[in-house]
Specification:
Blueprint lengths: L7 H20 L9 E10 L12 E11 L11 E9 L2 E9 L21 E2 L4 E3 L2 E9 L14 E9 L5 E11 L18 E2 L1 H16 L19
Antiparallel strand pairs: 1-2, 1-9, 2-3, 3-4, 4-5, 5-7, 6-7, 6-10, 7-8, 8-9
């Protein structure tokens, strides 16, 4: 694991999170949060508006999507839902993690529990380092989204958005997935697999990396882990 290089408060907070998540990861076999989820195969498009904040992030092709609940509570109870996305560029995995949030200048950085994964917007919580400065990514469900992780009719249908840390949102893409992939256990890392050409801020890496390392130590699949690569894209 790369040594986190960030300000001291972030490194201290990251160490505390690792101390908290370590025992929880052992209890949940390597997943302190989002212990159960459903993986689907679909298509991702990024770069609809090159003038949107962070518009240099572009992609069109296949993706794998995992829908899950943060605390793993039963369906129908409020939980923080997550949608994790993986695609591949030049053989390198790209990971994007979205969680239930608001869309306001402050609420886009706050988690929002809901009874359904499609009950409101989602966001990346932490900003990415881009050519336009700090940019957050978000998503809004459209009517095609339905179901939950326990439902065979689960379908992901999201309009993707981007915004500067405190600025207005602009549409930047679309994510659709409805083909369930059984028995595929993906592990995501938004720091090591940050979508190129975006980068991660040092303080964000210092917060996240120790917790992810603690989870990996309790991963029953370690050291031989599935890559979870999406299928090759052959379309235009």
């Amino acid at each position: 694991m790369p040594v986190p290089d960030g300000p001291l408060p972030a490194r201290v907070a990251g160490g505390l999170l690792a101390t908290l998540f370590g025992p929880l990861a052992a209890l949940r076999r390597g997943r302190p949060l989002h212990p159960r989820g459903t993986v689907l195969r679909g298509t991702l498009r990024l770069g609809d508006d090159p003038d949107a904040p962070g518009g240099e992030l572009r992609y069109a092709g296949p993706a794998l999507v995992r829908v899950s609940r943060s605390a793993g509570l039963p369906p129908g109870l409020p939980d923080v839902h997550g949608v994790a996305v993986r695609w591949e560029v030049d053989g390198r995995p790209q990971d994007l993690l979205l969680s239930g949030t608001g869309t306001g200048r402050v609420t886009r950085f706050l988690l929002a529990p809901r009874t359904s994964p499609w009950g409101g917007p989602m966001g990346s919580l932490m900003p990415f380092r881009t050519a336009d400065g700090p940019v957050v990514l978000g998503a809004v469900p459209v009517p095609g989204a339905r179901g939950d992780t326990d439902r065979p009719d689960l379908r992901v249908d999201l309009v993707l958005m981007s915004a500067r840390a405190g600025g207005p949102w602009q549409r930047c893409g679309r994510l659709v997935a409805d083909e369930v992939v059984p028995d595929l256990d993906l592990r995501f890392d938004p720091v090591l697999h940050v979508p190129a050409p975006y980068r991660t801020y040092g303080w964000a890496a210092a917060l996240r990396l120790p917790a992810y390392a603690a989870a990996r130590r309790h991963d029953p699949r370690r050291p031989a882990r599935a890559t979870g690569r999406p299928p090759r894209y052959s379309g235009g």
